Amino acid sequence: MNRIAVAVVAALVVAGSNILADDNTPAQQPKPAPAATDKQKPPSQDPGQQKLTRRERKERTKNLPDQYREFLQDVEPIMTQPELDTFLLLETDPQREIYITEFWRRRDIAQGTTNDTFKKMYYDRLADVKEQFKQISSDRARIYLIHGQPNEIVPVDCDRKLVPIQVWKYAYLPAMGHDVYFLFYLPKTWNDWRLWDAMADATTAMSQLVAEEAMARGGTAEGAVGAVFAAEAAPGIPLIEMECKNGEELMRALGYTQQNKFQMLKIFEPPQINTEDVQKILRSMVIADPNAPKLSADVSVHFPAKQGSRTDAEFTILVPRAEATVKDVGGTANYSFDVTGEVLRDGKLFENYRYRFDFPGDSKEEKLPLIIDRFLRPNDYNVRLKIMDAHSGAQAIVEKTITVPELFDSPEVQRQKESASGAVSALKDAIESAQTQLRIVPLADDLLSGLQHIETIAVGDDIKSVEFYLDGRKVMTKRQPPYTLDLDFGQVPQVRKVRAIALDAKGQPITGDEIILNTGTDPFRVRIVSPRVAIRLKGKTRVEMSVNVPDGKKLDNLQLYLNETRVATLYDPPFVQSVDIPQTEGVGYLRAVATLKDDPTPPVEDVVMVNTPQYMEEVNVHLIELPTTVIVNGRPTNTLPETSFKVFDEGKPVKLARFDQVKNLPLSIGMAVDTSGSMQPRIGEAQKAGALFFKNVLKPGDKAFLVSFDTQPQVVQKWSSRLADVNAGLSKLRAEESTALYDAVVYSLYNFLGVKGQKALVLITDGEDTSSKFTFDQSIEYARRAAVPIYAIGLGIRSTQIDVRYKLGKFCAETGGNVYYIERADELGKIYSDIQGELRSQYVLGFYPPDGVKPGSKWREVSVQVSEGRAKTIRGYYP
User: Fold this and answer.
1) Distance (Å, whole) CA 690 – CA 760
2) Which listed site, 225, 477, 515, 743, has its alpha carbon 20 to 30 Å from 423?
3) Closest Cα partner for 406 from 540, 305, 506?
């Protein structure tokens, strides 16, 4: 028996050491360690991060209705401290019911289950615990509730020489691994079993044994250590393997416990859940902060209209401007308010909602109006509102009882409906009498992936079947209406071209339509709307075009070409032109080219092929652009000539078709800022640093957009070349809820589709993804396709967060960007300066894929070599 075993067994001896058997004061049970969280939360006044004192928890628990105290008792072993504080901060029973539903939903998500599966499993365990054990707070009960029923319970019988012992064996536990042992014993004077703690119990046992042995031999404690450990067993300690039933299992359990003593400290931790998800309920409910400054608010309700069977309840909230706080970011000032509302009916929460309002800082209104419309069925409701100044935290709580009336259409509204119905009928008749045509019903202007339903509108008896194409490849022929189908766009959003061709009875194409999806949000775009599919085009043809012009810019002209011949120059909408296509004209194309007035942005264009054979293979070889940075002696350089560069595609050299230095190109830059709850203490510094960055980096002809992301990403400022617009977007950033990092990467990169020239995305986050719909692998593939350098900044991400750091680094390595790690938001300025220096020192190298490489083929690796220094660029491309 080894030294540790001697001391450990001594603590379990009935006759001998009094350490456990005769101690009248139960030893302190190991306290559960704080639950691991995805992010470290610094102190904050954010309502989602409030912490209660022990006295406050006790007082609030005592004041709960019986059913909610019972709930807390039942789930105590699996409830984290933030969850407990959140629950105790709630003010009404409807809020608590919502909380309990979310409590079990989080655990289903963590377990990968649905429909309250975890709740059912837990209450089954709880029923077993109440039947088998004395109290659910005991060690055995807590282990059972957290980890489930053991695979085997082994009693250790040692003829009354040892206290009662049980060994619990688990084949596998996610937090512990395979072949897990727990050792429980019943101290002589205790009335419940205790988990053996190798850190505390064994140390105490050793000290006591040494002291007793020293006194027995008349020596010192130090001198007795060697004698105790040299013996096969100390006096009174049995030879466990030989004299005890299942003694070998006890020795295995002792060995396991000793080897895993640090890991065993976590066994009472509740299962990990998304802490940010816990906190968001405090932001979605009307909960007063007694320490918040007071804000005045006048609330009135009107019922101006109806929508179907519901009535519009319009709430007008007037806040005195003199009581509001204005915030300045980069010279752009604004007032900001959050409104949280609850609608209760018959004492139950009918709906809850949140709104954000922003007003310019130079507003002269004495009272700022916050207007909310909720469509409610006629009934009596209790409405609760919390109006909060987002800059100062001042708030007002308003409660009103309202009666929503049933509204009826006025004679004027009835006449309008009849008129609209007649117009629809007339339009239907016009369509049915018009020429044969096929149109694809537009899909949502959004990031589309996965299975998508494609519908068409077919007009004309000549149409006998419709062929559908996806990215130039025929996928189906529908031979009878409705001419619809479901197309799989793949897991990762990318530009998709859907074409529908109508065929006559002989199988000849007669008309068609085409839509292009996932085209990005570039504010400067031109499109030939009609015709999109020109199979048999002769004579006078109506060409309809549309142009998107960036805010603050003006269109100089729109030119329309038939092949290389310019046929029209248009300056104002409607952009419609008749083009005479000769009867003898063969395959050709229509081309629309748009140019901005007094702006360095290059022209944009769109092309539609005319009179092409339906089965002609589409060749769409596009120029591959490599944004490249060259590092010489640790700093970027932009003085190298074209001859200094060599580009390799799949290891083979290719010829450069384009070479540009960034100083000659407009810069398009996006910034995605993590605004999850954990960013709350840092958001102010991030806003200031972002404003300074854009002030220094944006030059004439450049443009930028701003995305914030918590539970989901959203554009807070679309593409703009005006610094004031970007600063206004920064001033609206607010930190709350979870972290959809991967979704933010995909959503931000989507904005670059169709954008030419130099591009970059700056990504700021302080932790790992907790709520994205896209996976890491999907977002990496999308980043590869986008070919936009990503500069990721990790705020307060510790070196031990290996997985988080790996993934951020992967985004940057695949796209030719950089990753930075800092501890405080006030360090952002230096990082921004480094990024700016690199962006202004880049080259854009362009080449065409080798012959035989077709669009849609596999990923191809590229590399760049330079005559001096080190080149950094994207890792490859999809043709």
Assistant:
1) 15
2) 515
3) 305
Domain 663-841 CATH class label: alpha beta
Q: Which two tokens stand for residue 371?
A: 């207007």
Round to whole Å and give the CA distance between 697 and 840: 8
Q: What is the pLDDT of residue 604?
A: 86
Mean pLDDT of the chain: 82
The CATH number for 286-404, chosen from 3.40.630.30, 2.70.50.30, 3.90.550.10, 2.40.30.100, is 2.70.50.30
Q: Which residue has the tokens 């960007």?
A: 817
Distance CA 724, CA 720 (A): 9
Tokens linked to 814: 């695949």
Cβ neighbors of 159 (< 8 A, separation 6 or more) are 243, 244
- Residues 729, 716 contacting (CB under 8 angstroms): yes
CA-to-CA separations, 512 to 4, 434, 468, 669, 802, in angstroms, rounded: 83, 15, 10, 38, 53
Amino acid at 703: K
344-359: b (≥16 Cβ within 10 Å) or e: bbeeebbebeebebeb
| Residue found by looking up tokens 């409610």 in the block | 376
Smallest Cα–Cα separation from 387: which of 338, 325, 318? 338
Residue 220: phi and psi, rounded to 5, are -90, 160
Convert the pLDDT of each residue in 786-809 to its tens digit.
Answer: 889 999 999 889 888 999 999 999
CB 459 within 8 A of CB 450: no
pLDDT at position 552: 76
Q: Report the CATH number of the 423-610 domain.
A: 2.60.40.10
What is the predicted pLDDT for the residue at 157?
A: 85
Ordered by start, the domain boundaries in the chain are: 3-23+34-266, 286-404, 423-610, 663-841
Query: What mean pLDDT is predicted for residues 633-653?
Result: 92
Question: Cβ distance 694 to 703 under 8 Å?
Answer: no
Return the number of other C-beta atoms located less than 10 Å from residue 280's C-beta: 21
Between CA 698 and CA 704 the distance in angstroms is 8
pLDDT band at 426 (very low <50, low <70, confident <90, very high): very low
Question: At 749, is the secondary structure helix, strand, or coil?
Answer: helix
What pLDDT, on the 0 to 100 scale, is given for residue 704?
Answer: 93
Residue 595's nearest CA partner among 569, 574, 576 is 569
Beta bridge partners of 792: 763, 819
